[in-house]
TrEMBL record:
InterPro entries: Na/ntran_symport, SNS_sf, YocR/YhdH-like
Lineage: Archaea, Methanobacteriati, Methanobacteriota, Stenosarchaea group, Halobacteria
Keyword Transmembrane annotated: yes
Subcellular location: Membrane
Organism: Haloplanus ruber
Keywords (A to Z) from UniProt: Membrane, Transmembrane, Transmembrane helix, Transport
Transmembrane intervals: 7-28, 40-65, 86-110, 139-161, 173-196, 216-236, 248-270, 276-293, 300-321, 341-364, 371-389, 409-430
Protein name: Sodium-dependent transporter
Pfam families given in the database record: SNF (PF00209)
Membrane topology: Multi-pass membrane protein
Signal peptide: none
Gene Ontology CC terms, in alphabetical order: membrane
Amino acid sequence: MSQRETWATRVGFIIAAVGSAVGLGNVWQFPFQTGANGGAAFIVVYLAAVFVIGFPAMLAEFVIGRRAERNPIDAFARLGHRDWRVVGAIGTISAFWILSFYSVVGGWVIRYIVGSATGAYFSGSEAYFGAISAGPEAIGLHALFMALTVGVVAFGVTDGIERSTKLMVPSIVVLLGGLAIWAATLDGGGAGYAYYLSPDIDTLVANIGSILPAAVGQAFFTLSLGMGAMLTYASYLGRDDSLPADGATIVVLNTFVGLLAGLVVFPILFSLGIDPGSGGLGAAFITLAGAFAQLPAGRLLGVVFFVVLLLAALSSAISLLEVVTAYLVDNTDRSRSTLAVGLGAAIFVLGVPSAFGLSILAWYNAIAYNLLLPLSVFCLLIFVGWVDAADAVTELRRGTGLSEGGATAWLWFVRTVVPLGVLVTLLLGLQSLAVRAGLIAEAIV
Ligand code: PFF
């Protein structure tokens, strides 16, 4: 087997991980989930979930990846726990699964860049979304998005992922920042900031049962946890920098981009009197596109917004493909590019059904979100917290000035609060899957 690749620089790793974290989850899902869950009240819980639950869990993935220097499946064997490879397998399968429909949405985004430039959806954004989100065109664009993803991963960790994310991530921040400044100039947008930034405690207390699992699920998804992506990226570190410092930078930047997306979306919607809680899966595509149609310079705005969304989606998709590719690169003698193409083709095929209708895509999403993701994070936390704790603490402290007390505090979180939070999310997620499948009636939930 040839020498395993490593990141060229520490910053390269951080930017690639931010690229993975910042995705459709931040720019598409986050503002609309905030809208659906009562605005600022959701954000309070979400921020707590990100820092109290997501951050320690991210460090848990880093610790395994950097120590094992292997893909998620082989990492457990390398650390001397072969039976736990099944946990890595769940993560790897999740990455494969999620990418299959993430790429379908990526295809819509490509369509909307063109549609914004030509004004194609300006006369009826809902009908337009219905027409392009399912069927042959959706499948073709799903193929195109997959091809772009494969194109990056085929070039490898440094020449493909590190180099491309160094361009994509700063572009996302600059363009989104520009949109936020522009949105600040809109008449009537002020109500959007109030809705977004001043939490109503009564709403929070009254809806905590639904807000909590949504916030925790969103925290994991946005931080790319549970799919082995952060584990795989950390496996290419090959040096002893501070994992907590790198992790904190990644978490803060990711949160910043999510909040920035809200500063674009809410003033726009409020300036036009559109309810931010409406829209469901198609929200960015129907509600927001509908808003662009009504605004001056709407075409330009639409193009910029959907370019941001495409860059965000692509820099996340490559981390998902990398998880699966890493497994085969570590275990076969075939070239990385051949493997990336083959896997891309297989993932494309798996995603085709979700390009046939929104209800199928919603099912794919629900299985990932409610089952695979929390299950995988939960098992990983048990491994790090209870099975491999001593080595994990040593690994966390390598390359840092982190005190023993700091590392012990982290371990305490990984053992208790974090898995508990995940377990509750998993149970509620299973319940919502059962409701979705019609196994139990909505009324008793
Ligand atoms: N974090 C990405 C987003 O917010 O869109 C999604 C994601 C990417 C999840 C990579 C998991 C992953 F491994």
